[in-house]
């Protein structure tokens, strides 16, 4: 009888380990330095979601865990990990919360929110991106996400109000009125508000006495295009 040959590890497993390590490194870097993200639940979610499954083509293996935005087709981008983590931290979505996200894109931020909240409703104006995101979310087995291909500037009337609203496209100031209206009392909205080129992260909190508005870091997002957003160029 032949002695079995020593087998080298399956390349797939090695790659999986590499990606897990790359993800660990990404999370460690997010939690260090001047703009460190400290929310433990957010960091844990970033550790769990395989970002490489949300980027397309040649970028997949090499760049998925770098701290930068990447193209996802249709002139859109998947946001930089730090931006995703920081917005999630500012949003402070809890396990009882119903969340509305505007700008599904790749679905990566959607997956992070799905780890943090009870249910996530997400809207994307580009049908093809929306379909791809639905596929990824399904593959990963999330059962608390619903994605709709529609103009998010009008919100999602049928299921409003929301405990949290996250807008991940550059929004004119002031932010579209339906979104503020669809925020529950005590609710929070995080949105990159400004002009088409540059924005600032703004957090609105709806209280019994009105709206509070706080400003945070400067950011650059693709524009929110729609009936109550920017015009398509
Ligand atoms: N959170 C995404 C970021 C995607 S970029 C990610 O992590 O991948 C912003 C997305 O907002 C783009 O996909 C763009 O098509 C979408 N978008 C722009 N205007 C929109 C609108 N009015 N309603 C819904 N989605 C919109």
Largest sheet: 7 strands, mixed
Bound compounds, please?
A: S-adenosyl-L-homocysteine
Q: Termini distance?
A: 71 Å
- Shape estimate: globular
**How many beta-strand runs?**
9
- CATH superfamily heading: Vaccinia Virus protein VP39
CATH class designation: Alpha Beta
From the helix content, strand content and strand pairing, which structural class follows? alpha/beta
What is the averaged pLDDT score?
A: 93
Characterise the protein shown here:
This protein has 233 residues and is α/β, with parallel strands linked by helices. It has one domain (15-219): Rossmann fold. The protein is 31% helix and 26% strand. The protein has seven helices and nine strands. The chain has helices at 11-30, 40-48, 59-63, 81-91, 108-116, 127-139, 177-181, and strands at 70-73, 76-78, 98-102, 119-124, 145-149, 162-167, 183-194, 199-207, 210-219. Strand 4 (119-124), helix 6 and strand 5 (145-149) form a beta-alpha-beta unit.
Sequence-ordered SSE layout with sheet pairings:
Elements: H1 11-30, H2 40-48, H3 59-63, E1 70-73, E2 76-78, H4 81-91, E3 98-102, H5 108-116, E4 119-124, H6 127-139, E5 145-149, E6 162-167, H7 177-181, E7 183-194, E8 199-207, E9 210-219
Parallel strand pairs: 3-4, 3-6, 4-5, 6-7
Antiparallel strand pairs: 1-2, 7-8, 8-9
Key features?
binds S-adenosyl-L-homocysteine, two-stranded antiparallel sheet, Rossmann fold, seven-stranded mixed beta sheet, 233 residues
């Amino acid at each position: 009888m032949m002695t079995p040959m020593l087998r080298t590890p399956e390349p797939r497993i090695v790659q999986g380990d590499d990606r897990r390590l790359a993800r660990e490194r990404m999370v460690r870097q997010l939690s260090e330095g001047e703009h460190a993200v400290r929310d433990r639940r957010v960091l844990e979610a970033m550790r769990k979601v395989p970002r490489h499954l949300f980027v397309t083509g040649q970028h997949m293996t090499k760049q998925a865990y770098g701290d930068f935005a990447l193209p996802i087709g249709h002139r859109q981008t998947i946001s930089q990990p730090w931006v995703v983590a920081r917005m999630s931290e500012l949003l402070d979505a809890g396990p009882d919360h119903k969340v509305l996200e505007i700008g599904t894109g790749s679905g990566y931020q959607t997956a992070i929110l799905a780890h943090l909240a009870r249910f996530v409703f997400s809207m994307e104006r580009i049908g093809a991106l929306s379909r791809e995101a639905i596929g990824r979310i399904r593959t990963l087995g999330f059962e608390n996400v619903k994605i709709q291909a529609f103009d998010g500037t009008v919100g999602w009337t049928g299921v409003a109000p929301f405990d949290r609203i996250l807008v991940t496209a550059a929004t004119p100031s002031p932010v579209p009125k339906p979104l503020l209206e669809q925020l529950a009392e005590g609710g929070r909205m995080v949105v990159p508000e400004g002009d088409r080129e540059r924005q600032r992260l703004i957090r609105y909190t709806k209280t019994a006495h009105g709206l509070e508005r706080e400003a945070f870091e400067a950011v650059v997002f693709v524009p929110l295009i729609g009936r109550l957003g920017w015009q398509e160029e």
